Amino acid sequence: MLAYILPCALLAPVGAVLLTLLAGRRFMELLARPLSLVATGLLITLAFTHLLPEAFEGELSPHTTGLTALITVLTLMAVEMFFTSGGHGHGHTHAHTQGAFSSGGAGLIAGTALHTFCDGVLLTGAFMVDPGVGLGVTLAIFSHEVPQEIGDYAVLIELGLNRKQAFVINLTAALSTLTGALLSYLLFNTVSALLPLALAAAAASFIYVALSDLLPRLKRSDGTLRMLKRLIFILAGVGLAIFLTHGHAH
Asked: Coil, strand or helix: which one is 154?
């Protein structure tokens, strides 16, 4: 199992960081929106067709599983309401790492590291359900991470870091996925009853992240053609998730 989990724990966030650097920021910004829509389709499909059903089939009562999903959504809402800030800095002209961290970079990196650590936990839970589901979650995390990494990279540059410093810091934060994957693998193998809780939390977080990204776009009057294109990208993600997990059955 670890032979699947560890490479994918590195592929999703680290691949996103490397692709963002190598392909160039402008190209990746063009790619970010379609990828985020594909990620939306992947996330909601995996959540509703695999993670939630697996969680409800566990040893815990359905009420406990549902309560876990609810607590997860409420926690994510609280974090977004109280700890997410739209302001990221003051546009320093001198590259100074310590100044960048004091201007908000430290909070950004800590948040990214925590986010990728949780991604590692989700990956492990998905692979323990089925390798196809794990691969689908890997692609979903990768597609979701690319826009995130572009934003983090731009903020760190704005705060005063040079390109190399921003890249190294983003890459270091992304490696938290590996830590989350290893620790959760050991934990789930030791206390198997925790796996349904992790799956319920993963499903709830996937649904929350997907819809919080999608719903603001649905309120915009961008024309029928653009909306149709967005729907196609979402359905592509749905189809990809179904293709990757079609062999999973009880």
From this structure: helix
Using the 8-state DSSP alphabet, how is residue 51 labeled? I
Can you tell me the distance from the alpha carbon of 24 to that of 40, in angstroms, rounded to the nearest whole number?
24
Which amino acid would we find at residue 228?
L
Rounded to whole angstroms, the Cα distance separating 180 from 183 reads: 5
Please give the structure tokens belonging to residue 128: 């323990």
Both tokens of residue 42?
A: 């992947």
Sign of CA dihedral 130, 133, 139, 143: negative
With beta carbons less than 8 A apart as the criterion, state whether 11 and 138 touch.
yes
> Among all chains, which residue has been given the structure tokens 């294109």?
229
> Is the pTM of the predicted complex or chain greater than 0.85?
no
What's the pLDDT tens digit per position in 33-90? 888 888 889 989 999 998 999 899 887 888 999 999 999 999 888 877 876 544 333 3
Three-state DSSP at 193 gives: coil
Contacts of 161 (CB under 8 A, 6+ apart): 95, 97, 100, 105, 169
Query: Cα(29)–Cα(215) distance, rounded to whole angstroms?
Result: 20
Residue 78, class by beta-carbon neighbours within 10 Å (0-12 exposed, 13-18 middle, 19+ buried)?
exposed
Is-contact 43 140, C-beta < 8 A?
A: yes
Nearest-angstrom CA–CA distance, 74 and 72: 6
pLDDT in tens, 111-142: 777 778 888 888 898 888 888 888 888 888 88
3-class SS at 220?
coil
C-alpha of 175 from chain center: 13
**Contact at 8 Å (CB) between 111 and 167?**
no
Q: How many residues would you count in the chain? A: 250
In one letter, which amino acid is 185?
A: Y
187 and 194 Cβ atoms separated by less than 8 Å:
yes
